């Protein structure tokens, strides 16, 4: 079994980082994610939001893997999360539902308010394989390497969504309704004195081709 643990500090408030995390699909850094659907969403007596999502991901086995080791390239992943708006904490756990004999990946991600206007993300994971033929350790090492690369891309995807949230200047109620969560009811207002520009459906959000909005828009635009 292989283990992974890493922490990262965002220079953004917990409410916005948490929102970006839940809105991270689709993004150009997660092209392997084919779909993401909410299975259930409830609230607890203490005011926490519990959400279960089903995610379909596409992957590929290394060239050295035996032919036919898995029946298909797609894998279903279940994501179970809890948002505590009072403790300002998001706990999210994911695990794959199929191909578990070849490789089982269990991941835990926690977002906590940290310091003044910052958010600490802690990611932990375990990778294990029950495959025979003396390949278990090699499969686990391959899975760990892939997981490390995916963590970096996931962070880039969240950062891209954070940039979009800043540029679009969404209001608190709009962002709250995006995931139906009381955890995001308070979003810091913009303090600059420049009047906010309203964009029509035929106008671009920004003229900067290197901006987050331009990059995501060009990625989503049909060829």
Automatic annotation (TrEMBL):
<dbReference type="Pfam" id="PF04707">
    <property type="entry name" value="PRELI"/>
</dbReference>
<dbReference type="GO" id="GO:0005758">
    <property type="term" value="C:mitochondrial intermembrane space"/>
</dbReference>
<feature type="region of interest" description="Disordered">
    <location>
        <begin position="191"/>
        <end position="223"/>
    </location>
</feature>
<protein>
    <submittedName>
        <fullName>MSF1-domain-containing protein</fullName>
    </submittedName>
</protein>
<dbReference type="InterPro" id="IPR006797">
    <property type="entry name" value="PRELI/MSF1_dom"/>
</dbReference>
<feature type="domain" description="PRELI/MSF1">
    <location>
        <begin position="1"/>
        <end position="170"/>
    </location>
</feature>
<feature type="compositionally biased region" description="Basic and acidic residues">
    <location>
        <begin position="193"/>
        <end position="207"/>
    </location>
</feature>
<dbReference type="InterPro" id="IPR037365">
    <property type="entry name" value="Slowmo/Ups"/>
</dbReference>
